[in-house]
Design brief:
Elements lengths: L19 E6 L2 E6 L2 E6 L8 E4 L5 E6 L3 E3 L1 H9 L3 E5 L6 E5 L8 H11 L1 H15 L11 H23 L18 H24 L15 H8 L2 H18 L5 H15 L2 H12 L12
Parallel strand pairs: 1-5, 2-6, 5-7
Antiparallel strand pairs: 2-3, 3-4, 7-8
Helix pairs in contact: 2-3, 3-4, 4-7, 5-6, 5-7, 5-8, 5-9, 7-8
Length: about 300
């Protein structure tokens, strides 16, 4: 939490492993006053209105949400102390920009990531680990053909769709998305699209703060943010699809409600309340087999 009063840490440089992970700020101005980094806010769900000194040297990354304004001096101080600033949507449902000129203390994660990706055998090993997570531990022994694994996972997700539809009493006619006519989709498919976008944004935040390489995906290949897509997919069945079907049910109960803000707000609440971004950071460490003493959420 932000702290009242002068911090007295002007000359300290705290390693990221010893810092808290993420600080969320919204609806206020982040600026330097009398040598302190101060956030003056009109108030939001997690913080009452007021002016708060920010212990920026004890935080790895600040997530600045809607209504947030930052001064040049604030950016200068954050950069000097290697504290990251990410401009995000409400509760992390979008990632708009990052200000992380120095990144984590060590290149270990990026080097490990690149080395695993560069070797064909280890790249498949990581992909298998991701599919094992997605399949709840069920994976055919010695199955190393990714197309076959995609087929297995695809069949499982179809069952997840139907189970969620039955659970929420929502009509389900299959996953459909026409890029040329996106408005032709039914409510559930619209909800899935919006939930996917929100969870993907959280994955981009997790990739950014861990210092891993967004372009080097183990399952996704062509996207410049392929690794974020890999991580987002680990949460498809447990987070993304439940959000979508709950949102679709809510719209079904309240005709005239717009599915986009409904799904987006529901996604934001889930991402914050269920600590999805810290969980994604843990998953990144797990799939890359990184042994670290960092606390959850630390870069």
């Amino acid at each position: 939490m932000p702290l009242k009063g002068r911090l007295g840490l002007e000359t300290a440089r705290v390693p990221h492993a010893d810092r808290h992970g993420l600080m969320w700020l919204e609806r206020g101005r982040l600026a330097v006053e009398d040598g302190n980094l101060v956030f003056t806010t009109a108030g939001f769900a997690d913080l009452e209105a007021g002016a708060y000194d920010i212990p920026y040297q004890q935080v790895s990354n600040i997530l600045l949400g809607p209504g947030g304004v930052v001064s040049h001096d604030a950016l200068r101080i954050l950069a000097r102390r290697d504290t990251g600033l990410l401009a995000v949507g409400s509760k992390g449902v979008r990632l708009y920009a990052t200000s992380m000129p120095f990144g984590p203390d060590s290149a270990k994660r990026a080097r490990t990531h690149a080395a695993l990706w560069a070797d064909e055998e280890s790249r498949v090993d990581v992909a298998r680990k991701m599919y094992r997570i997605r399949l709840g531990g069920e994976l055919p022994a010695h199955q190393r053909d990714l197309d076959s694994l995609r087929g297995i996972e695809g069949r499982r997700v179809k069952k997840v769709y139907q189970n969620l539809a039955d659970q929420h009493g929502v009509e389900w006619n299959g996953r459909r998305y026409d890029r040329n006519d996106p408005d032709s989709n039914d409510t559930v498919n619209h909800a899935i699209n919006h939930a996917v976008t929100a969870v993907y944004a959280s994955a981009r935040i997790a990739v950014a703060v861990t210092g891993t390489v967004p372009e080097l995906g183990f399952i996704h290949e062509s996207s410049g943010r392929a690794f974020a897509l890999d991580i987002a997919d680990l949460f498809r069945s447990s987070v993304t699809l439940p959000i979508a079907f709950r949102a679709a049910k809510k719209v079904q109960r309240q005709p005239g409600r717009d599915i986009e803000p409904t799904a987006r707000k529901m996604a934001g609440t889930t991402l914050r309340d269920d600590d999805v971004i810290p969980d994604m950071i843990d998953q990144i460490k797990e799939v890359l087999d990184i042994d670290t003493d960092d606390d959850r959420g630390n870069a």
